[in-house]
Amino acid sequence: MPSATSHQGQVRGEPQPPRSPDLAGYVQRDGVRIAYNVYEKAGAPTILLVPTWSIVPSRFWKAQVPYLARHFRVVTFDGRGSGLSDRPAGAAAYEDRQYVADTIAVMDATSTDRAVLVALSAGATWAVHVAAGYPDRVAGLMAIAPSCGFEIHTPGREKYAWDARLQETRGWAKYNKHYWLEGGYDDFLEYFFGQMFSESHSTKQIEDCVAWGHEITPVILADTTAGRLGLDGATRSSVEDACAQVKCEVLVVHGTQDRVRSQAVGARLAELTGGSLVLIEGGGHGTPARDPVLINRMVKQFVDRIYPVRREIRWPRASARRKRALYLSSPIGLGHARRDVAIAQELRALQPDLQIDWLAQHPVTTVLGAAKERVHPASAWLATESGHIERESGEHDLHAFQAIRRMDEVLINNFMVFDDLVGSEPYDLVIGDEAWDLDYFLHENPNLKRFGFAWMTDFVGWLPMNEGGPEAALTADYNAEMIEQRARYRRIRDRSIFVGDPDDIVNRSFGPGLPDIREWAEQNFDFAGYVTGFDPPSEEERSALRRRLGYADDDLLCIMTVGGSGVGEPLLRRLLEGVPVVRRLVPNLSFLVVTGPRIDHRSLPRQRGVRLRGYVPDLQRQLAACDLAIVQGGLTTCMELTACRRPFIYVPLRDHFEQNFHVRHRLDRYGAGRCMTYDEVSDPAQLADAIVDELSRDVAYLPVETRGAARAAAMLAELL
Asked: Are 65 and 74 in contact (CB under 8 A)?
């Protein structure tokens, strides 16, 4: 009898998923432990995401689980030979019947009486056998890119010879255990997943799968493959005979550009089971990862058809609707939120009857709460982007480009929350301030655009930190995809607004063979000028402000602040270590350290002459009153200091392309600030000398746009 135990459920090195399982355990069958996860949803139908070939674990479904788990009960498990499950030896351990028995054992262990099975590739064969052998346990079967063993010719696969030594290793001849065992495994993984994701710009999906492929050995992969093919002593079950016994509803989804299994395989499965067939024009073999929005919506529609739900919806007639806008503001820092609140206030002045809802998360909600803005309840479903960024950071180090790439499952989760919201409530205008998920997935799914859409950003172009390294090709690929999206679907963005001026854009190329960034941006963006959200004080107003804040004329104040994320804590600690040395040189200099909403100011060490505060909602007033500021390299705080004409030192995060290239370029244009490295400010003597120099410096910055918020609001109002 199978027995069940618990496990922790996360592979070391993986990003934190948006949704953690409510139950993680093992079921043991015939001495083999199978790891499973359960995502509970009381009273909802169960979806079982069937494992596929052991070359990838159940983490392959990472783009589906968070979304589906909001609507259904979801069960996943690592197939034998993959993930956290055991890896028995020998082809016989991986016969179809073993996977079928594992599926039933997992259903029993998780108290799953009946489920809709969703399967990819090889998993479709096992799902068919489960549906045929256990009809009372399967409510429906959705097979994506099925890799069933029908006798169908696949062009380009003629040289496949499992039991023969290879004379040449090009193409599908790499699909051979001898090639894998003789040192060609890495080559095979790169080739296979390049074929699996035939769509252009699939670098992240290929990268993920290659990494998963390295979690098992060539020997295990050879065993699992031989088991499926009925080789090396294994017995193969007839999938054709099983198809005739399937009684549940079946949906087959197949890409027309699938290079692993021809769409003819999908058509044959639909024919034999009496199921429906959906062909994804231009789609490859890994559509759940490459086209997650499309697959997520298909799965939900399929399950809803099997388990109809009675719903009561109130939908106002167009003429009875109040004008509504939905605002999405990037939560990576606080700069976006402060400028977006300023724009929203200006927009209401132009459209007094406009209702603005915010789909927002912490720390943006901190700013919105202080401004009495309405945060939509659906925001509770958003996965934390700031938390992900903090987990990706090191000591004053954040590889921003790679952190965004590794945030893919967070971004798809958050887009699906957005898509559900706009599908249930009408909005006239959606505004996205660097809401990368929104812009990207709308371009990938243009049919979902049912509203006016305005996109805002303060930088254009992903840039590599190492110009000659492998990252240069990745950033160029990301840029190329964005350029292609804009050229093909210009109607997606009704307005593209750059927060700044054309000269604020770096004068560099998007990559080899791609346009110049500034030239392209001038053709594709409107320019609002910078948005500060306040009018910089005059010298008289600054003097009055200092008195109101309790500072005497001869007091010297240095503010240290690192923005809205928790990434800046190491910098604050290093700066605090240097305070005693600085105060010996400048005895009347006091310090105000502002940690922001995601760092506990009480956790920092105490120093004489230093006040520690957490979130300060009117930080720009403090910055205007200071004699010097030391900040991280974020754009908003640096530009607020520039607008207030205050001396400041900024310390860009290492490996952060935006701070090191885009922000620095803009500050150089304004002639603002002094850039120092983390190592330099970590040396108390260098820090003290720099502070003394900056306190005596006369600033001569270019003036900063003061009507940026009003100008941006006017552009948005035209869409209403």
From this structure: yes
